[in-house]
Design brief:
Layout (H helix, E strand, L loop, with lengths): L1 E10 L14 H4 L4 E3 L3 H8 L17 E3 L4 E21 L2 E18 L7 E2 L10 E11 L2 E10 L2 E3 L6 E3 L2 E11 L10 E8 L30 E8 L2
Antiparallel strand pairs: 1-4, 2-3, 4-5, 5-6, 5-7, 7-8, 8-11, 9-10, 11-12, 12-13
């Protein structure tokens, strides 16, 4: 069980908030990030900076808001949850069996961008943690042979990139591995093992996530990946 508070986290608001929704999320960001009706003196100060660019030739006197995208000591994050693991090992007909499950359940993942902004839960939203993830295993060992099957689960959550919010389905994938260890200790093949593994055995696609920016990347890279079924063969030598 953990209960942790991170203070003055150095972030850019764009890392957690979609830039196209800044006025929708204005209350969350606070006036330090989104400032309506900025005074002319502040606009003139920003224009005087050597990094100032105005590619669209906008009249500075018509600026109605400023969005601060710089990295700042902005955020306070409160995280509370439970990491768990349980396993059972036994022997049956000369074969070793190892089963178990390891995972994490998050109760709270609250974020406050500034002291004047409200506390907002980012749990179960796109590009943020989901409340439940786990990996289950079933491994069989018989002499020099071993094989294992693993099940990975990520819980469903809310797609807050669109209005009204959408639904992101849960994602369950399976991995498998088989290996053989050469037991001729002291000989050239001693300590040598070979293994073959398959990640995402059923070639399960990541859940669909809308992309309001028009890019053709329609999945959440924090909670899934688009690698697909992946084969690997490994030869290992231990001394």
């Amino acid at each position: 069980y953990y209960d942790i508070v991170f203070s003055n986290e150095i972030i850019a608001a764009g890392g957690s908030i979609n830039a196209s929704n800044i006025f929708v999320d204005e209350a969350i960001l606070g006036p330090e990030v989104v400032q309506r009706n900025p005074p002319l003196s502040l606009i003139e100060q920003l224009i005087s900076l050597p990094t100032y660019k105005n590619p669209f030739h906008i009249d500075p006197t018509t600026i109605g808001a400023i969005y601060n995208t710089r990295y700042l000591n902005l955020s306070t994050v409160k995280a509370r949850g439970l990491d768990f693991g349980v396993g059972y090992k036994t022997t049956l007909l000369g074969a070793g069996i190892d089963t178990g499950i390891d995972g994490a359940y998050i109760f709270t993942f609250d974020n406050q961008f500034t002291n004047t902004a409200p506390v907002v839960s980012f749990l179960n939203t796109t590009y943020n943690p989901t409340d439940l993830k786990f990996r289950a295993r079933a491994i069989l060992n018989y002499r020099a042979l071993s094989g294992g099957l693993y099940i990975n689960f990520t819980n469903a959550y809310t797609d807050n990139n669109i209005i009204p919010n959408g639904h992101v389905a849960s994602w369950t994938t399976a991995d498998a591995v088989a290996s053989y260890e050469f037991a001729a200790v002291g000989k050239p093949m001693g300590g040598v093992s070979v293994s073959f593994s398959v990640i995402n055995l059923t070639d399960r696609a990541p859940p669909y996530v809308a992309n309001p920016n028009g890019y053709s990347i329609n999945y959440d890279g924090v909670n899934a990946n688009a690698l697909g079924r992946y084969f690997s063969l490994r030869l290992q030598k231990r001394w």
